[in-house]
Automatic annotation (TrEMBL):
Pfam families the UniProt entry points to: PETase
Domain PET hydrolase/cutinase-like: 46-306
Keyword Signal: yes
Keywords per UniProt: Hydrolase, Signal
InterPro entries per UniProt: AB_hydrolase_fold, FrsA_esterase, PET_hydrolase/cutinase-like, TAT_signal
Region (Disordered): 1-20
Signal peptide extent: 1-47
Protein name: Lipase
Stated family: Belongs to the AB hydrolase superfamily.
């Protein structure tokens, strides 16, 4: 019987057998479905790529607001319950539906208490951070001691505090005012794994910080007579390595004590800095790059756009 030449392909032909043809068709359909799904979900690709992203897309008004999208609770920590620092107050988002949050410890300045930085607690926590405003062992502690105390506070926060389960211990930052700002630099120097540092009108006898690799935003004040920017904030900033993500924000018509009361400019750029570097949230780069221009509240802003942008 003569074989039907159309039943099977000739040897060496590229025409597949019917079973193979069906499998290829199925594979093609699957690939098309994946491509279609990726196309449909592309607006959310950034969130999928960044598991640390928290909260809605930011706007100018959202980062200037007195409160962010998260409801906040707080808990007091007695100095008798801790070692290495003087206790404080923890502010934290009440929601656990978004998973864990990054955390920030904040130190006060010479002769001051945590109350001098209390305004930053709920303001930052409501944007999606656990915030620890601390007291120091004594109000006269020097910057190097304050730096060690900031790190001790972070260790307590992540290892023993009642909110430790809400914190991602790999995403931590430090802030501080005056000698607490000097301590912020000391902490970043000692612990390079920190994700962000924000010294506020900082004071320190050490003027050079080439060892700091933590992304650092230094805030100075044009009217500061206690830690004049020419001998403190500016040389601190200039000494940071150019490879470090760094910025210098000089407040206009401000004093050494401007960080001690609610300040929209400090909050706005602190939120943006912490979000960008603790949460890796590139949605906040728009407020840091291009560099902010002088304004009624900004005397000067220097820095580099976040590396990898």
């Amino acid at each position: 019987m003569q074989q039907n030449p159309h039943t099977h392909a000739a040897p060496g032909s590229a025409t597949p057998f019917p079973g193979t043809r069906r499998r290829l068709a199925g594979l093609t359909a699957a690939v098309a479905a994946v491509v279609a799904l990726a196309t449909l979900s592309s607006p959310n690709a950034q969130a999928a790529d960044n598991p640390y992203e928290r909260g809605p897309a930011p706007t100018e008004s959202s980062i200037e607001a007195l409160r962010g999208p998260y409801a906040v609770a707080d808990t007091s920590v007695s100095s008798l319950a801790v070692t290495g620092f003087g206790g404080g107050t923890i502010y934290y988002p009440t929601s656990t539906s978004d998973g864990t949050f990054g955390a920030v410890a904040i130190a006060p300045g010479f002769t001051a208490y945590q109350s001098s930085m209390a305004w930053l607690g709920p303001r930052l926590a409501s944007q999606g951070f656990v915030v620890f405003t601390i007291d120091t062992n004594t109000t006269l502690d020097q910057p190097d001691s304050r730096g060690r105390q900031l790190l001790a506070a972070l260790d307590y926060l992540t290892e023993r505090s009642s909110v430790r389960g809400r914190i991602d211990s790999s995403r931590l930052g430090v802030m501080g005012h005056s000698m607490g700002g000097g301590g912020t630099l000391e902490a970043a120097k000692s612990r390079p794994s920190l994700q962000a540092a924000i010294p506020l009108t900082p004071w320190n006898l050490d003027k050079s910080w080439p060892e700091v690799s933590t992304p650092t935003l230094i805030v100075g004040a044009d009217g500061d007579t206690i830690a004049p920017v020419a001998s403190h904030a500016e040389p601190f900033y200039s000494s940071l390595p150019s490879a470090t993500d760094r910025a210098y924000l000089e407040l206009n018509a401000a004093t050494h004590f401007s960080p001690n009361t609610s300040n929209t400019t400090i909050a706005k750029y602190s939120v943006s800095w912490l979000k960008r570097f603790i949460d890796n949230d590139t949605r906040y780069e728009q407020f840091l790059c291009p560099l902010p221009r002088p304004s009624l509240t900004i005397e000067e802003y220097r820095g580099n756009c976040p590396h990898g942008s």
